[in-house]
């Protein structure tokens, strides 16, 4: 991805789904800008927005989160949409211990894990 891509989540459980989506994107090695944060200059990852929150990046997709979906299930459905649109790759990799530590650090810095 050479430019940021905004995904807008709506629905009663959008915030929980955004949290799960951010965690999964980082696990997959994608850069992510969580809701409520502005992407830094030169950012080329996925920008997550909730509802009608303003975004400096044009919206790519809007996904309505079903009240019947768990946040993790909703996140997986959104990953499928992002993959189908060529935004991310769902190829799994085996990480070195150093890479796993970097992923943990990124998740912690973003507030997704303690």
Please give the radius of gyration in angstroms: 13 Å
Task: Tell me the number of helical segments per DSSP (H or I, 4 or more residues long).
Answer: 3
- How would you sum up the global shape? globular
The whole-number mean of residue pLDDT values reads: 86
Instruction: Write the H/E string, N to C.
Output: EHEEEHH
Percent in helix? 25-40%
Count every beta strand, where a strand is a DSSP E run of 2 or more residues: 4
Fraction in beta strands: 15-25%
Strand order of the largest sheet: 2-3-1-4
Structural class: alpha/beta
Number of domains: 1
Short structural description:
The chain is α/β, with parallel strands linked by helices and 114 residues long. The chain is 36% helix and 17% strand.
Which features does this protein show?
four-stranded parallel β-sheet, alpha/beta, 114 residues, globular, 3 helices
């Amino acid at each position: 991805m050479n430019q940021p891509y905004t995904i807008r989540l709506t629905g009663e459980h959008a915030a929980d789904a955004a949290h799960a989506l951010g965690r999964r994107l980082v696990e997959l090695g994608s850069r992510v800008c969580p809701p409520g944060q502005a992407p830094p200059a030169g950012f080329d990852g996925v920008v997550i927005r909730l509802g009608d929150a303003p975004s400096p990046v044009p919206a790519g997709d809007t996904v309505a989160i079903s009240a019947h979906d768990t946040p993790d299930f909703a996140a997986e459905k959104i990953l499928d949409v992002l993959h189908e649109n060529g935004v991310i790759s769902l190829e799994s990799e085996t990480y070195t211990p150093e890479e796993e530590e970097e992923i943990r650090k990124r998740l912690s810095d973003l507030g997704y894990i303690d």
